[in-house]
Design a protein that fits this description.
Blueprint: H1 3-13, E1 18-22, E2 25-28, H2 29-45, E3 53-57, H3 62-73, E4 77-80, H4 87-97, E5 99-104, E6 120-123, E7 132-133, H5 134-138, E8 155-161, E9 169-174, H6 175-188, E10 196-199, H7 206-219, E11 222-225, H8 231-241, E12 245-248, H9 250-257, E13 272-276, H10 282-292, E14 297-303, E15 309-313, H11 318-321, E16 333-338, E17 350-357, E18 363-364, H12 368-374, E19 375-376, E20 379-388, E21 394-399, E22 404-406, E23 409-411, H13 413-420, E24 426-436, E25 440-449, H14 455-463, E26 474-477, H15 491-505
Helix pairs in contact: 1-2, 1-3, 1-7, 2-3, 6-7, 8-9
């Protein structure tokens, strides 16, 4: 079995069923499969072959879905590129992945228009300098069935996650990995052909892509896409298309819960409200349940490196265990919390969460050392420290790495620090997360410079080098950063000072 053949199967089985609804346009399974065949044949005509990497720089639109299946139909590997990335970041992903082509959408084309890349460049809308239009690209192709001979062990997707080394790491997933986690969601969350999965979080992230889009196609359900998220758009889309499943970061729920339009909204079609990326407190859970008029709130925890998969906290557990990530791994996954001796920790002790299952990635692309470090006897190390309570529920207490989670999105400080140090006046910098009432954490930068450097100047400097969500929101210039005896910056001290300041301010 392979992912692209699932679509071909359902084009025969459910030809008139809506496969994708995007920007108000409905595309049936038969129509989607025909468009995938045309695009697959065009890829072959352009010299793209089995094993080649193809970048997709698009928001959640139908063209993303067509390309996702077409690339795999000819045996290629999909390389989703974060729609918020700027030119430098796009170029890094293309170069590191050894991509042969990139497809961009006109809605975000300005960010990609100036990239330096020698491969095939295609965009939706009108053609541009060195970029051909999607229509030109497809012009000579037919809808003749393109046969896909991939096996479950063949590569499927290369997803880039921000890395502590300063640049994103490529997580290489096979068909088996993706199929394993899509089967898991279908079973755990009762996804059926009549289901309508609302996908507002970016398809360049593993959960929306592998847990929602792939799962929708796995069972013959409908994927309802929006290119962005706003609270009112969420409310309107649920009401218009009677969606049944939604995945979002906690902040998406909190912002929507505060919308004045939710009081009169009809959200009764929704059966599964799923959140992940960070836990919600009991107070927040109660608030969301009241505003959404639902008890169907589910927490998922997982890693891109595991498919993603990890653990699940079902709706019935929220009243007593809000804030935890659940007491079990979902279907097809095993979970342990271990100490430094790789032994299971006792109740109340803190240890690292590790995961095992067929969703576990193949490797970090072109990074054998990091691949070796993250695996332990086939289990994936999460880098997250957890504690198990007396009833077996797991609570995240800290992270081994300094990852910042803001709005459910991982932000890694070193990449930001590296860019700060490129400023001619800044000679040392530390970036870390500080508490934020809505986003969980927000990014703070503390730096030392040869002269006074304004917050506005630094922000403008970074906006050219980083996606907006990575650019720090809080800045502090100091004489010198605190360091230990070996010269390492004491981030924990800085973080503690920042948190104390926040507490005093409140």
């Amino acid at each position: 079995m392979n992912i692209s053949n699932l679509l071909a199967r359902h084009a025969r089985k459910y030809p008139d069923q809506a496969a994708v609804i995007s920007l108000g346009q409905e595309t049936t399974y038969k129509q989607l499969d025909e468009q995938v065949n045309i695009t697959a044949n065009a890829l072959c005509a352009s010299g793209i072959a089995k094993g080649d990497k193809v970048g997709i720089f698009m928001p959640n639109v139908k063209e993303f879905v067509v390309l996702y299946f077409a690339i795999q139909r000819i045996g290629g590997v999909v390389v989703p590129i974060n729609a918020k990335f700027v030119a430098r970041e796009i170029e890094y992903v293309l170069n590191h992945s050894d991509a042969n082509a990139i497809f961009a959408h006109e809605l975000i084309f300005d960010q990609a228009s100036s990239i330096s890349f020698d491969g095939l460049k295609v965009k939706t809308g009108a053609a541009s300098l060195h970029w051909q239009s999607f229509e030109q690209f497809q012009a000579a192709a037919t809808d003749e069935a393109a046969l896909c001979d991939l096996t479950e062990d063949d590569d499927s997707t290369l997803l880039y996650t921000s890395g502590t080394t300063g640049n994103p790491k490529g997580v290489l997933l096979t068909n088996r990995n993706v199929l394993a986690v899509s089967h898991m969601i279908a079973i755990e969350m009762e996804v059926k052909p009549e289901s309508r999965l609302l996908i507002m979080m970016p398809l360049t992230h593993s959960a929306p892509l592998n847990l929602f889009l792939a799962t929708a196609i796995l069972v013959g359900a409908t994927a309802v896409l929006t290119p962005t998220f706003t609270p009112d758009l969420l409310i309107d889309t649920v009401q218009t298309y009677k969606t049944t499943h939604f995945f979002g970061a906690p902040v998406a729920y909190l912002l929507t819960a505060s919308s004045p339009h939710i009081a009169n909204a009809d959200l009764s079609s929704m059966k599964w409200w799923v959140y992940g990326g960070a836990p919600l407190s009991e107070k927040e859970v109660l608030y969301i349940q009241k505003q959404f008029n639902t008890e169907n709130l589910v927490c998922v925890y997982g890693l891109t490196e595991a498919g993603p998969s990890g653990s699940i906290l079902h709706a019935a557990d929220h009243p007593q265990k809000a804030g935890s990530i659940g007491n079990r791994a979902p279907f097809g996954t095993e979970l342990r919390v271990i100490n430094h001796l790789n032994e299971d920790v006792a109740q109340g002790e803190i240890g690292e969460i590790i995961l095992f299952g067929e969703g576990n990635m193949k490797e970090y692309y072109k990074n054998p050392e990091e691949t070796k470090n993250i695996f332990i006897d086939g289990w994936v190390r999460s880098g997250d420290l957890g504690r198990i309570d007396e009833e077996g529920y797991i609570y995240i207490v800290d992270r081994k790495k300094d990852v910042i989670i803001s709005g459910g999105v991982n932000i890694y400080p070193k990449e930001i620090e590296d860019q700060l140090l490129q400023h001619e006046a800044i000679f040392e910098a530390a970036v870390f997360g500080v508490p934020h009432p809505e986003w969980g954490e927000t990014v703070k930068a503390v730096y030392s410079a040869k002269a006074s450097v304004s917050e506005e100047e630094i922000r403008n400097f970074l906006c050219e080098k980083l996606a907006a969500f990575k650019v720090p929101k809080i800045y502090e210039q100091v004489e010198a950063l605190p360091r230990n005896a070996s010269g390492k910056i004491l981030k924990q001290q800085l973080r503690g000072e920042a948190n104390a300041s926040t507490s005093v301010g409140q």
